[in-house]
Amino acid sequence: MDKRKFKHINKTTLKKDGLGLAIGENKFTDDYYLPGMLHIAVLRSPHAYAKIKKLDDSAARALPGVVDIYSCNNIKRIMYTTAGQGYPEPSAYDCVLFNDTMRYVGDQAAAVVAESPDIAEEALKLIKVDYEVLEPLLDYTKALDEGAVRVHTEPDARMIIPMPYDASKNTCADIKAVVGDFEAGLKKAKKQFTFTTESQSASHCALEAHSAVAWIDEYGRMTIVSTSQVPWHARRITAMILEIPVRDVRVIKPRIGGGFGGKQEIIVEPLVGLATWRTKRPSKITFSRRDVFMSGRRRHGQNNTVTIGYDPATGMIDALRVYALENAGAYGSHAVTILTNTATKVLPMINHVPNIEFIGKGVYANLQVGGAYRGYGATEGCFTYCQAIDILAHDIGMDPVEYYRKYAIKSGGTSEIFAKLGEGTEGGAEMTIDSCGLIKAMEMAGSAIKWEEKRKLYTPEYNKGKRVWRGIGMTCLLQGSAVPKVDMGSAYIKMNDDGSFNLHLGATDIGTGSDTIMAQIVAEELDCPVENIIVLSSDTDLTPFDVGAYASSTTYLSGEAVRKAAVMVKEQILHVGAEMLALSPEDVETLDNKVVQKGGEKFKTFADIGTYSLYTHHQLQIQGFGSHVVDKSPPPFAAHFAEIEVDTETGDIKVLEYTSATDCGTAINPLFAEGQVDGAVVNGLSYALTEGYIYNDKGVLRNPSFTTYKIYTAPDIPPMKNMIVPDSYEHSGPFGAKSVSELGINGPMPVIANAFFNATGKRLCKAPFTPEYVLSVLKD
Amino acid sequence: MADAKIREVFTVNGQEVTLALEANDTLLTALRNNGYTEVKNGCSEGQCGACIVQLDGRPVNSCQALALSAKKKKITTSKGIGNYARVSVIQEAYVEAGAVQCGFCIPGFIVTTDALLRENPNPSDEEIRFYLSGNLCRCTGYVKIIDAVKLAASRMKKA
Asked: Any idea what the CATH number is for the domain that residue B139 is in?
């Protein structure tokens, strides 16, 4: 732990864009209204699997106000992935902007460009499509069966990096990681069990739907404003699909109304890009909520089986195998990397296991397309693994808190899994854990919920004869911080004449507050007020590169790039300040917005220095830049606890209290860090108890709206206490920080399931835990 | 929109303004097409509350009201509650409490909170949760939003 005292770090600073957002001044993508703007509407497949025999758009084209129509008739076939990942993407190139084969209900058949939204919608009805309807594959758990329907038969679907891909077996991700010898370990083990869970597809439900606006600028180049979490990937992939040079495309990220992974996909940008590049007129598309559900992306959901061989005397695990089957849906976006994360962000928790086998299969089905979603495979993995650890602890008669205290990974520990699996062509990264506040997290969250007292209280005797049964459960979690060796973030800082600074960075603030914490990092390094840092982020013309907001990377990765840039600026400030004071740079330091003489009285304010540097003598622009790549992905850790009530007549689960404590290293802005955990936990609770995609027997999503797909509202949240572990310091991160945004979502599903077991002696293996499902489990 | 057929006078944020609209426009569409983009469209089905405005002081999902039906009513958006010229205590409280993350839903929350605190200047936690049940937020888990409402209420009492 670092004992240094911070001035701006680990302090609550008001969000830079907070007031503008609360007033309604800040622009989101859909708030751009341009004169003469065209509107785009998409014709979507009504069939889960069909070939377009003929698409006749002549009647639609004849409708006044229709400007153009795009389909497989007139748009070149270029294979790509919608996954907004670094190049070369570790996702299959298995989709085309306008395909002649429709692979799910909602697949993109054509797009109309028209003078108004109404005309565009009207024209959709006039497009005649002659479909050859095919038998769909609707149950992904049967995708690997002999003779299963093949979702992708086109010869040009492929991975562009050397990773296993076999469309003939509906397999778009095939992961295997081996440590030691699982079979031998299992044979040696005195006891073993196998446990299977099934997690569901779910929508991100960012309140802002996907949207993009494009126009041609004064130089004939195209600007795209979009709701992207990944502006640089959006530029690269859009340019590739449309065969426009990257230099002719500028992507701007305005304010973003939440992402959670759903906007790490290149979906809307190519549509406005195509319309505007061809017509040279501004164009816009904004998804309806239905579009987001049907044709945005979703959490995959996995069917996972864990087998554990162990010593009942000690609880030590001899052998661990996880078989994860992932529901990729129609296209393999993020299918590979989410599966690797199901291993790397879950299995290292109990790290003494000598024999591990992880097998992950991502399979196609004629269902909505899976993609990135907060938690990124760890959510599904934790549902299985964190219950398995609970099963083991229960079987050996050990309190699970004690089990984690004894066997969970600690500072100085490692796991071979970190090195076995990476993302993309890079392997993983070996890692020794530096900061680990897990034990402290268990103490904090456990005492807040009175774990020991309630764990003793809630027994079969306590619940006997009652209609409503009580239980309490817990789990421990880890995630990561950025993708090591792959992802890069960068920043640029310049000084102004009043001593303020412009910070231009690629990192993509999608509502997390990252613009503000980056300003805090600069202010800390330079020792100046946060108010003096003016932040501009994510404009591919005006700011340097960043991979974007994903993989829990912004604070840890981009934050260090920002700090490096600030270090460079500081050196120049000291140099100029020393010149002004007729001292040598070694004799001065920064203090409270000034350069001061060490041990002396002389000083110059940053404003003096800024003005001098631009106007007076040896004029120069004080400026700095930084790029950062990380060589490891330090996990944030958390302990989650829940106390629940199970109504044995209605099957209703009520969460009475939820507590958690998170070790995110230094919380750059504690208020924001808490907010990240609160949001993640509530999303996790909502996912565990209510959310899920419901299909009919034709593969039609039955609940593509907020009326039928319910997410938690304010009255639904239980009493909660989400805390940040103080005094954790990750030496590889900026001012000791690591990530915080994702891991909280992984807790509620296994924690409620563990509490349910405590209350009832039965296991919840299928989410969401609806009253119907709970009753069926209780009756079993 | 410039080519909209009808022009009608409405009272928005205390000012009489002429809005260009179509007869079948929802209030949400009419407001947004005329520059009131602080009113957000989150679902167009009356479920998310991002488009909530006050009609004569009552919070209403503007996506569920025909624009013309609001002609004789006072329409209030988040900018009518407060703006850079005159920031509202509620808006300040939301920022200070950490209730603003992505901020897309926040104008709707500001409008609803203003109506709540005029009706009930001293709401309990339970009353706050119930009153905000028509406003969805996916970022905050509502925790700091409830803090913000309580902070605003306490400051308004002092004022």
From this structure: 1.10.150.120
**B76 with B88, same domain?**
no
Task: Select the residue from A713, A717, A722, A723 to test the B interface by mutation, using most B Cβ atoms within 10 A.
Answer: A713
**CB–CB contact A683 B2 (8 Å):** no
At residue A334, the pLDDT reads 98
Query: A426: pLDDT confidence band, cut at 50, 70 and 90?
Result: low
Shortest distance between the Cα of A19 and any Cα of chain B, in A, equals 6
If pLDDT is split at 50, 70 and 90, which confidence band does A1 have?
very low
Q: What percent of chain A has pLDDT over 70?
A: 99
What is the distance between the alpha carbons of residues A618 and A606, in angstroms, rounded to a whole number? 17
Instruction: Examine the fold and report which residue of B62, B80, B98 is the final residue of a domain before the chain moves on.
Output: B80
Per-residue H/E/C for A240-275 = HHHCCCHHHEEEECCECCCCCCCCCECCCHHHHHHH
Positive or negative CA dihedral for A6, A12, A15, A19? negative
B-chain CB neighbours of A33 within 8 Å are 33, 35, 37
Chain B residues with CB-CB distance to A204 below 8 A: 138
Contact between B53 and B75 under an 8 Å Cβ cutoff? The reply is yes
**Distance of residue B146 Cα from the nearest chain A Cα, in angstroms:** 8
Residue B39 and residue B76 share a domain: yes
Sheet order of strands, A603-605 included? A588-591, A594-597, A603-605
Which backbone phi and psi does A468 adopt, to 5 degrees? -105, 125
Read off the pLDDT of each residue in A607-618 and give the average, rounded to a whole number: 98
* CATH at residue B11: 3.10.20.30
Cis peptide before A768 (omega within 30 of 0): yes
Could you tell me the residue range of the domain that residue B135 belongs to?
A: 82-158
Same domain, B46 and B58: yes
Is residue A263 less than 8 Å (CB to CB) from chain B?
A: no
User: Does B150 fall in a domain?
Assistant: yes
Cβ contacts (< 8 Å) between B30 and chain A: which residues?
none
Mutate to test the interface with A, among B26, B40, B102 (most CBs of A within 10 A): B102
My answer on whether B117 and B91 are in the same domain is yes
Statement to judge: residues B73 and B16 lie in one domain: yes
**Which chain A residues are Cβ-neighbours of B150 within 8 angstroms?**
none
E strand map for B5-125: 6-12, 15-21, 52-55, 58-61, 74-76
Distance from CA of A516 to the nearest CA of B (A): 11
Distance from chain centroid for Cα B25: 19
Q: Could you tell me the sign of the dihedral formed by the alpha carbons of A716, B123, B50, A24, in that order?
A: negative
Looking at the structure, tell me whether residues B148 and B95 fall in a common domain: yes
Q: Is B112 inside a domain boundary?
A: yes
Average pLDDT of the residues of chain A: 97
In the numeric block, which tokens belong to residue A149?
Answer: 């329907």
Q: Measure Cα distances from A414 to A346, A419, A429, A664, A742 in Å.
A: 13, 10, 11, 18, 21
The beta-carbon neighbor of A208 closest among B94, B104, B141 is B104
The answer to whether residues A515 and A543 touch, using CB atoms and an 8 Å cutoff, is no
Q: What is the pLDDT of residue A4?
A: 63
Are B128 and A19 in contact (CB < 8 Å)?
no
pLDDT tens-digit series, residues B41-99: 999 999 999 999 999 999 999 999 999 999 999 999 999 999 999 999 999 999 999 99
* Residue B1 placed within a domain: no
Residues in A 494-533 with any Cβ partner in B closer than 8 A: 510-513
Q: Is residue B128 part of a domain?
A: yes
* 8 A C-beta contact, residue A508 and residue A228: yes
- Write down the ipTM of this complex: 0.98
Residue A43 has pLDDT above 80, yes or no: yes
List, for residues B113-148, the tens digit of each pLDDT value. 999 999 999 999 999 999 999 999 999 999 999 999
The pLDDT, as a whole number, for residue B1 is 47
Q: How far, in Å, CA of A683 to CA of A298, rounded?
A: 14
Q: How many domains does chain B have?
A: 2
